[in-house]
Amino acid sequence: MEMVNLTIDGEKVQVPKGTTILEAARKIGKKIPTLCFLKGVNEIGACRMCVVEVKGARALQASCVYPVSEGMEVYTNTPAVREARKVTLELLLSDHNLECPTCVRNLNCELQKLAEELGIKSIRFTGEKHKAKYDDFSPSIVRDTSKCILCRRCVSTCHNVQGVGVISPNHRGFETMVAPVYDMSLAEVACVNCGQCILACPVGALKEKEDTDKVWQALQDPEKHVIAQIAPAVRVSLGEEFGLGRGAIVTKKIPAALRRLGFNRVFDTDFAADLTIMEEGHEFLERLQHGGKLPLITSCSPGWIKFCEHYYPEFLENLSTCKSPQQMFGAVAKTYYAQKMGIDPSKIFVVSIMPCTAKKYECQRPEMRSSGYQDVDAVLTTREISRMLKEAGINLAAMPDEEFDEPLGISTGAGAIFGATGGVMEAALRTVYEVVTGKELENIEFTSIRGVEGIKEATVEINGMNVNVAVAHGLANARKLLDRVKNKEAEYHFIEIMACPGGCVGGGGQPILSADERFEVDYRAVRGSAIYEVDRKMPLRKSHENPAVKQLYEEFLGKPLGEKSHELLHTHYTPRPRYPEAEEK
Amino acid sequence: MKLAAKKDSELAEKLMEVEKMLEKYKGQKGALLQVLQEAQKIVGYLPIEVQKRVAEALNVTLSEVYSTVTFYSFFNLKPRGKYQIRICLGTACYVKGADKVLSRLEQELGIKVGDTTDDLKFSLDACRCVGACGLAPVVIINDDVYGRMTPDKVPEILKNYE
């Protein structure tokens, strides 16, 4: 590798050719401030916060996009640099909706943090503010452009990471606004509700549609039997909101905290994930043995489902008809559980605690009422439940270890790994292998489909047959994989797709890291490893060994793919337009 | 109704022409600006129907197309009027009261600058210096130039285009 020597503030640095000044400076512990920069996602030098002096250069240079060269002399902390950054920041602040104490991103806002770090004590500029729009028609994502600083991190994420591309900077100059076409609402365009834009936003211009009020109300209502289900990925991320470190495992603290918040029962989506494997595993075998539509594609990720409906309707028949674990849980809670406990299902209020914003949309789909009621009443993101706990004065970190309630709280390691990319596939293979061969699987860890690589493949021999599987996460990767299948460049029997990079651990409802932290840590990989640790420590690690799932089939459902399963646990999909139907106005 | 039907069939014809034009640009993301110019030449403006076809052909998102269309003032989202009124807001015209003439134009036509009347008769745009500062303030309607404009002359002049 060709190396380049330069000095930064007089200090000698040697870095590989092609490195930017910003990266070289970070290497020697110098933090150049940034705002629009998001490593690997948005590197456009637009916001001018990262300007530095380069000896011989005519003007200040944006260090996030300026490559180093031999003998270069860089100064990151001169009066001219400091003043330029301050002016830029003050101009941004002068056109920003400064309602910081009531903003959802208060104390986790990159603009606020920079103002503090750069020592902004007053804003020298006053003037007109840009015309803003508050768009809360989407059930998942709220846009508040009064706080938008036009950094374009959400735009790059939506277009390049997710391959969706429904928001762009529209119009020009002072009128510029990041918005869908014709300034429509996100609800009117082919947004898949994944919420990755929220994770990318440095400020409070994008946030989830808050449902905490609904849940507070239910918790207050003595008539209601309020039950919670916790998604796999939440147990390795909620601790982060309480200072426990990235990927801290808080599985047993969650039931304790939620009971103190007032939930009548605390159950586990991992249980429903095991149930999903029973149904989906048998669906796969059914299709494989009886010439059904292949490849079978997983259906757990509601962002992926909506993406498929809008952008790849030709694959709708490939989608597993299985509902997602969240929805299976809701349907089972308001039928089986209600009967077993003698509770009127109309009195049961199901709250899902999810790493996901798309789940908010999913629970409102008209198909998701097979109990006769809306199967899941409210979905809270990891961030929302953390806010509720804090409001109630409950410190998760100080909670004792407690168990989930029975029966819907019993799960296996296979359910837990749903939270990481490749996990659903791995869980399915563990069960499918044993169901087909009748033999015990020797090595249950399918490591080739784990990890952060965008598309992963494996071939697994089951009873003399080579089963080809593929895993994609992040919808731009899903596009690549599906195009390969469409063009017959690859043939698979079974595909797992998760909308979010990293799978649910990287979900749009998860704790938000600043661009600086994302520069240092691959948070998805950290949370992913934690998920596999959860799996390793479980006494049972295969879905078909889950005693509560077995009992559910014996007492209520009959058998996988049986009549009752079809009624409660399976669904159908609808092709949706890629573009809005009519022009507004 | 008849008029609307005729308009639809006209647009349909033009859309076919746009599709034909797009064939030579299939998959060329970098050709967006050029394609939009050609499409506007054919249709006269860039309705969503045109933008969708451009997005499909070039394999870019509709959002990117719309973003580009709204960035450049050259592109029109709405059909232009039979009579295109341009008012100069260059320095000389401005200091001689072009802003007041513009207000009167907006008031008389019932539209804002950049818009077109519902009957597609007039569209109203502001422009920079047209090189006729001696006649300031200046209004141009298609190829006719009106110098030394005042707000009160507006209704009278518009009568010429009934």
Describe the protein.
The complex is a heterodimer of chains A (585) and B (162). Chain A is an alpha/beta fold and 585 residues long. Chain A has 3 domains: 3-92, Ubiquitin-like (UB roll), CATH 3.10.20; 108-122 and 129-208, Alpha-Beta Plaits; 224-569, Fe-only Hydrogenase (Larger Subunit), Chain L, domain 3 (3-Layer(aba) Sandwich), CATH 3.40.950.10. In chain A, 33% of the residues lie in helices and 14% in strands. In chain A, the strands form 5 sheets. A 5-stranded mixed β-sheet of chain A has the order 2-1-5-3-4, sandwiched between helices. In chain A, a hairpin with a 2-residue loop joins strand 1 and strand 2. The longest helix of chain A has 21 residues, at 269-289. The mean pLDDT of chain A is 97. Chain B has 162 residues and is of the alpha+beta class. Chain B folds into 2 domains: 2-71, no CATH class; 83-159, Glutaredoxin, CATH 3.40.30. In chain B, 48% of the residues lie in helices and 11% in strands. Chain B has helices at 2-22, 32-43, 48-58, 62-71, 91-95, 98-109, 154-159, and strands at residues 83-88, 122-127, 139-141, 144-146. Chain B has a 4-stranded mixed β-sheet with strand order 2-1-3-4, with helices on one face. In chain B, helix 1 runs antiparallel to helix 2. Chain B is elongated and about 50 Å long. Chain B starts with a helix and ends with a helix. At the A-B interface, strand 8 of A face helix 3 and helix 4 of B.
Give the secondary structure arrangement, pairings included.
The complex is a heterodimer of chains A (585) and B (162).
Chain A: E1 3-8, E2 11-16, H1 21-27, E3 51-54, E4 61-62, E5 72-75, H2 79-94, H3 110-117, E6 134-135, E7 141-144, H4 153-161, E8 168-170, E9 177-179, H5 196-200, E10 206-208, H6 212-220, E11 225-230, H7 253-261, E12 265-268, H8 269-289, E13 296-297, H9 302-311, H10 325-341, E14 348-354, H11 358-362, E15 378-381, H12 382-391, H13 413-416, H14 423-437, E16 455-462, E17 465-473, H15 475-486, E18 494-498, H16 515-520, H17 523-536, H18 547-557, H19 563-569
Chain B: H1 2-22, H2 32-43, H3 48-58, H4 62-71, E1 83-88, H5 91-95, H6 98-109, E2 122-127, E3 139-141, E4 144-146, H7 154-159
Parallel strand pairs in B: 1-2
Antiparallel strand pairs in B: 1-3, 3-4
